[in-house]
Every structure is written in structure tokens, then in C-alpha cells.
Design brief:
By secondary structure, the protein is of the alpha+beta class. Helices cover 44% and strands 14% of the residues. The longest helix is centred in the C-terminal third of the chain and has 25 residues.
Length: 442
Amino acid sequence: MRIVTDVAALLQGLLDERMDRLARETGCVKRERKFSGSKLLATLVLAALENPKAVSRDYQVTAAQLGVDVTENAISRRFTPGLVAFLAGALQAVLERTLSVDPPPVKLLDRFSEVNIGDSSTITLPDEYAEEFPGCGGAHGSGKAALKVQVLWELRRGRLLLILETGRSSDAKSAIAERLVRADSLSIFDLGYFSIDRFQRVGQQKGYWLSRLQHGTDVYAGGDKPIALHKYLGRNARRGVVDVRVQIGKERHPCRLVAVRVSPEIAAKRRQKIRQKARDHGRQPSREYLQLQEWTIFITNCPEELLDWKEIIVLYRARWQIERLFKLWKSYNHLADRDETASAARQMAGVYIKLIAVIIQHGILLMTVWPDGRRSLWRAAASLRRWIGQLLAVLDDSSRLQRVLERQRQCLGKSARINSRRKHPSCFQLLNDPELLEYTVA
């Protein structure tokens, strides 16, 4: 399979001679007594894949498996600003290798050329990096220095686009939201990326978009003035659903509005959260905003013949897969964890090491479990750790490495499969049969 060859190339890229040159250029390696740049990179990244909380002893053991005999102290001395610069360059080289697989058959996704979901996650950095990566001064835990990881994930082929930005940067102006789209593709972002300009641009490129409606956006339903949305929805609901053509914003951009009334219990929980958040910020929520919590409101340029209201809900829910990806990276790979007692360089190096590790991990998961929609990336990632030793043993031999990866593909593909559920069906089940959606309209 092509993906096996691609993953082998991704792994062997850690040993590429370009990494040796980069290590010398950044001052990370001045004289190759023990470590070359490539062997050092492979040691750090593969140790982090096997144990995300790796310490100097773990790095020493991994180095020995790669044929490098060094002490723990020698490893510790490597965590310098030069190593940080080297890892930053290595990360960019890894990001240039875009991996994807042939899409498994998924009925709802197959209506589009691509289905892209986007979101970001912020990692707090040592204050010493505030000039390079300014944060928000403590807002939302971002601190003086923070790195924002912007991710665009194509759900049919599994391809990741990952872009690093400062913690202070705006989601709505991120490169993942500004990029060109393919004709007949679907883009799904949360409200942080809400932009009528982007909706217009995607439509001009013959693409589709789906979003929640940003509160405060003017909505027109044929008249010269914006409608009172809550009253309008109440008058036009049919069995708890409103599905109409409207215009939004001062630009009067045409789109489709789909609103579904939620249960009183859900509406009450939403209002409680809103009131609490408003109190925390010394504000009072508006009456209209509280009233609108009775509804889940979507806007899209997808026509009715392409998606009905249930399919819109299912696709928007699929956006939560990227939240699960971030949870995997943060809870399982400990991407955002750092030892604040360590030097700033060691903490920053740890972030870059783990970023490279999760990209390689994603490539292996694409190879092993993506072809089966009934997959659990979490289970596959847990099983992957057991294979790191075998990968280390054959990393410098392309043919042997591919044979190990092929065995890995066969084993993980079976062990990471999840069963179908009658109650609370999985995302894969819903995408294949939206009628399974457990959504009772009020």
C-alpha cells in the first residue's frame, strides 16, 4: 500500500542527512562525537512516542537502541537554545510531508470532494518566549507566552494541515480559514472562525460551508429590516424545525438557516452557563440571547437537496472529532504538559518534540486504522507504543521497516475497531445513517 511507503519515508525522514545539516546550522551539534542531528532527533521523538513523559533515562535507552552510547547527563546537556532552534526547523520539515489515504466509504461524507473541520488548541510556554510567541497575558490560561496550534483535518482522507501561530492570534484570521478550498468541498468551523467574508469566499470557489449562527448577526427574511429572530423562529417552526432561506449581515449574504428547538432541560442548562459566565465577567446577558437558547441554529450554503436538517446536525457534530484529536494529543501524548522546574529551553524543546511525535503518530494511525470507519484512534495510539522498539530496530532499513509497518497495519487495524451501538451511535454510524440521530425536537 502507498501509505505504508509514505509512513516509512516519514519515519526515515528523522534520519535524513538534512537533519544533520540543520543541527550544525543551528549550533545544536558542533562536533559529531556521539550524536548526529538525525540520531538525536530520532532519539527524542521516538522516546516521546513510547513514553510521552520521557526523561533523560528514557532518552538514553532509546539512543542505545539506535546505536548511540551516551550518559543521562550527556542527554540533559543537549537541551539548549540550539536544540530548540533545531527542533523548530525539524518540525517544519515534518509538516511538509502531507499524508493521506484512500477514503473509506462513508455515505454522508462521500457527497463532498473533501470535508474539512478546523479548530485550534493553545499551549502555554515559558515566559522567556513571550516575544516570539506572545500570549494573552493570562486569559484562558494562555499566559504571557503561548503557542496556538491551528489544525485543519480532512475527514475523508485523514489529511492534517497544522500551522503554528502565536497565542494572541485570531482564529478568524488564521491561515486554515483563509486557504483556498476545493470545489464541492465542505468546511466546518466553530464560532471562533465565524466570518461572512469567508462564507462568501468559499461560495465563490464553488465550495460549501456550515456554521452555527453568531449571536448578534443581522438576519433578513425578505424585508428591509433585520428580523426579531426569536419571534420569527417561533412563528415559522414546523414540528420544532425551521428551514428557510435568509440573508445575513450588512452584506445581506444569502444562505440557508436551519433551527431546531431543544428540550426545556437543555435550554435551562444553556441559560445557567450563560448567566454564570456573564457574572464572572461582570455582565448581564440580554433577554433575547437567553430566549434563543431554546434553539440550535445553523447557517449554510448547502441546498436542501444536498442535506436535510438531520444531516446538517450530524455533520456539525462530526466537527467534535477534532476536539477528540486534541484530547488525544493533550491527555494521552501530554502535548501541553511541561515541567516548570526545568529550564525554558528544555520546556520549549519538549513542546516541539511532542508536536513532531503526534504528527508521526497520526501518520501511523492513518496507515493502520483509517481505512476502517469503525476506528478508535485512542485505542490505536495505545497499541502503537508496543511497536516502538520494533520500529527502532529497523529504522535505517527501508524494506525491513515497511514489513514491520505492514504487520503493524494488520494488527492495529483489528484491535482498534469499535462495535456498533444501538444506543448512542458512534459518529461513523451517524455519518452512514443520519436517521440514527437521537434528537427529539421540542
